[in-house]
What we know:
Strand order of the largest sheet: 1-6-5-4-3-2
Strand content: 15-25%
Amino acid sequence: MENKDIVTYTRLLDTIADTYIAGKTKALKAVNTSLIETYWHIGQHIIEFEQGGEIKAEYGAGLLERLSKDLSQSYGKGFSLSNMKRFRQFYKAFPIGATLSHQLGWSHYVELLKIDNELERSFYQRQSVAENWSVRELIRQINTSLFLRLATGKNKEEILQLAHKGQLIEKPEDLLRDTYIFEFLKIPEPYHISETDLETRLINQLQEFLLELGKGFAFIGRQYRITLANRHHYIDLVFYHRILKCFVLIDLKKEEAGYEDVGQMNMYLGYMEAEQNVPGDNPPIGIVLARKKDELQIKYAMSNTNSQLFVQKYQLYLPNEEELKREIEAIYTNEN
């Protein structure tokens, strides 16, 4: 073949490959949609049969076992007793078929069905779609109690909105977690780790770190150098948030955040807005991440500082889910 023919053939090859991949993806989505609808309808038939009172109580107690045995004999795998229970549970959890998202696979729904609380389940379903979580990522967010962490500090109306609409990113405060969880670093207790080591581990696990930060973050750099009065200063981590259209600066502290950390971040924010922003950028956001913080000291340190500056806590281990649940229940009790 001549060079021209090779180029033409290569284009044809690429076109066919793209068409094949697109078709295969479409077919897989169609299969997934069909499976979700099928499992939902199976659950619907079971529930409606039970509610119709068409069976005696003693017979109904073993209905799922009997169905599993008969359907397995006729159609083979797929109708185990555990699956029959899931199909029934699936319909009970999502009785309105229109609320199902076909962007999620059956494996996503299996994990969602493990969540008893309706508000939590609704949040994780919507957030999985919005952020395109894999099943592994969904499991991680459930295990780290993301919904409960986001709900902490909100009122009843805000918690309901979070559950039914997912996390909306409209202002800087929407980015924040009550506490950031870095369990993916797998640092054993008792830990001895420097700020540099912590930063390195986070960058080495950047995908998991971005998952914890939330939707919209794009990594810019670490130890980002800025120069003032011939002196170099280094910002630990710099991101750009594509939804809020602004830089997000993160300063890591291995222990407690102090007033000097607030002043330093305030300086960084002023520099980035004056020297690095381009037309269309919004004012940068600064987050000081520390293991501990003295609320009163931080309150006074932040008087008259940049309103885009936040001091938040992180922890290296999974949160106490029961404590978080009690906090949310207290909010409902107090407001009621």
